[in-house]
Specification:
Layout (H helix, E strand, L loop, with lengths): L3 H4 L8 H15 L5 H8 L6 H6 L7 H11 L3 H15 L3 H12 L2 H6 L1 H11 L1 H10 L8 H7 L6 H6 L1
Helix pairs in contact: 3-5, 5-6, 6-7
Length: 165
């Protein structure tokens, strides 16, 4: 019998609660005896309704419960690392923290295989000057000279960054 995490991959999600909901749905289809109580026992979580509260958004996962849930989900190392960053990304209140965890998710080889365009889109959107360079590069005045573009941007970025962009 396939494990539910092979049917539902954490790499397909940007919200861990959605992943967990889909995982439980798949698990119940493949194993009728799956319940929140049984999962909690398997994960080593004492409160049987904790997972239900997490799914409803009434509780968050902690570093400790992330590890336990990963065990309950039977995630491999790569999936577990991604899931951990996914949880921290979803729960982060601060934009800098969200950015940090998203970058960690992007560093996953499996995620890059599944969502290669999203990675390049993120790089484009995460740095202010990419859009500015693009606009200047398409203007009539631009000859394609990276030094000219850097100058027009007030030399706030290097010629090397212009060339990369």
């Amino acid at each position: 019998m396939p494990r539910p995490s092979s049917l539902v991959s954490p790499f397909e999600y940007l919200d861990y609660r959605e992943f967990l909901k889909d995982w439980f749905e798949a698990a119940k289809k493949t194993r009728a005896s799956m319940s929140y109580r049984r999962f909690s026992e398997r994960a080593g979580i004492k409160s049987w309704n904790f997972i239900m509260m997490v799914l409803k958004g009434k509780r968050n996962l902690t570093t400790e419960t992330i590890k336990k849930v990963s065990i309950g989900l039977r995630l491999n190392k790569q999936e577990s690392d991604f899931f951990s960053n996914l949880v921290l990304f979803t729960q982060a209140k601060d934009q800098l923290k969200k950015d940090q965890y998203y970058k960690a998710m992007l560093s996953s080889r499996k995620y890059n295989q599944l969502k290669p365009m999203e990675v390049s889109q993120y790089e484009y959107c995460s740095t202010w000057y990419h859009a500015a360079v693009r606009e200047l590069a398409t203007s009539r005045e631009c000859s394609g000279d990276p030094e000219w573009i850097a100058y027009r941007l007030g030399n706030k970025i290097s010629v090397r960054h212009v060339e990369h962009s």
